[in-house]
Specification:
The protein is mostly helical. It contains 17 helices and no strands. Helix 1 crosses helix 2 and helix 8 packs across helix 15. It is globular. The chain starts with a helix and ends with a helix.
């Protein structure tokens, strides 16, 4: 009876979330606002800090975690060495400088407010990330993806997406470290990551392409989709066994499958799973926001939001100007990237689950990211 009651509660939670999501996403669509903001609002309204339609978020969070897994997988599909080399100055130069300098400056500010180096690194890594989903949608809607500033923004986003991977490795290490030097656990994690990468590279080269050729011969869409899902889950499980993140495994699997001729078909088949589960992820992020805490810390949230928006814009514009870019394109690139993003939410969620951030700090950062996306 207890199990039946628990299953019924989970079922009720899913129905509530789906019903509210349909209504709110439709409303936001009419208002020409992106679905991401709608999902965040659903979580804020229906979660334990809002109307409390849903009081327990553990089961929903478990499903939502796979939204980030599928997002990393699709990013892995798009990532290739030739593309990286073609945009190497933008991706590695501008993108690398934006992430490193931005994180360093935020760490220094956090140090002034008595936060530890680890907390400063997490907050810095969270804030420097921009929203790939929002930026790509905006540029596509405005027909500016192939413009100079569009390509610049895309290159910076590509580096940011890659920079998430080290953070996903580091946060669990920080959580498990009880004292002493970080060099040994970090080295072990890098060795595990390298071993997993080589293993998946070998498997990808020797197994995946022949496997998908055989699957394609059957002309079964269901079998093709099932195989893709199996590959993603096995890759995520492999990195989890190596005490690394699930999302890292999905990213590596995407890279392997991105080198095959089935990349576009895979992306098309996975997109519905990604969109639904990523929507659940944003809902769970909205559930983390405490309205009472926002009221108490509204001034700090306003300050951090303005610092985030103007700081990121000025940093990108300055770096582009130093690199010889035009003022107009530099300004447009800075404005396009001047917001927080979905990976910032993912890093904050992971840090909260690992007890690495205080609740007040996480609430201020979460609310500031959300406000920057609204702006």
């Amino acid at each position: 009876l207890g199990k039946e009651h628990s299953a019924l509660e989970n079922f009720n939670d899913i129905i509530i979330l789906l019903a509210v999501s349909v209504a709110v996403v439709a409303l936001f669509g009419r208002l020409k606002l992106p679905p991401i903001l709608a999902y965040l609002y659903v979580g804020l309204a229906a979660g334990p800090h809002g109307l409390a339609f849903i009081s327990e978020t553990e089961n929903v969070s478990f499903l939502a975690e796979f939204g980030v897994v599928f997002l990393l997988f699709t990013i892995g599909l798009e990532f290739s060495l030739p593309r990286l080399l073609a945009m190497k100055w933008i991706v590695l130069g501008l993108g690398g400088a934006q992430v490193v300098l931005g994180t360093s400056m935020i760490m220094f500010i956090c140090y002034l407010f008595d936060l530890s180096a680890i907390q400063g690194l997490i907050v810095g890594g969270t804030i420097v990330m921009s929203s790939t989903a929002l930026v790509v949608k905006q540029l596509n809607d405005q027909g500016e993806m192939n413009g100079r500033h569009g390509q610049t923004a895309l290159g910076v986003l590509l580096f940011q997406d890659m920079a998430v991977v080290p953070f996903l490795i580091l946060i669990p290490i920080f959580a498990s470290e009880t004292g002493g030097s970080m060099a040994e656990p970090l080295l072990l994690a890098l060795m595990r990551g390298a071993t997993v990468f080589l293993l998946m590279l070998i498997v990808g080269r020797l197994v995946l392409r022949p496997l998908f050729h055989e699957i394609a011969v059957t002309q079964s869409t269901e079998l093709f989709t099932l195989t893709v899902l199996l590959v993603i889950m096995l890759a995520a499980w492999t990195t989890h066994l190596a005490e690394l993140s699930l999302a890292l495994g999905a990213f590596l699997a995407g890279m392997m499958l991105g080198e095959t001729e089935f990349r576009h078909q895979i992306e098309s088949d996975i997109r519905p799973f990604q969109d639904v589960l990523l929507g659940l992820f944003f809902i769970t992020v909205g559930m983390l926001l405490d309205v009472a805490s926002i009221k108490e810390n509204w001034l700090w949230i306003l300050i951090v939001t303005m610092g985030l928006v103007f700081g990121k814009a000025v940093l990108v514009v300055g770096l582009l100007q130093l690199g010889g870019g035009g003022k107009r394109d530099a300004l447009r690139s800075g404005l396009v990237l001047a917001q927080g993003g979905e990976f910032g939410f993912a890093l904050i969620s992971l840090a909260l689950g690992s007890d690495l951030l205080e609740t007040q700090v996480s609430q201020i950062v979460l609310a500031s990211i959300l406000m920057s996306m609204v702006i």
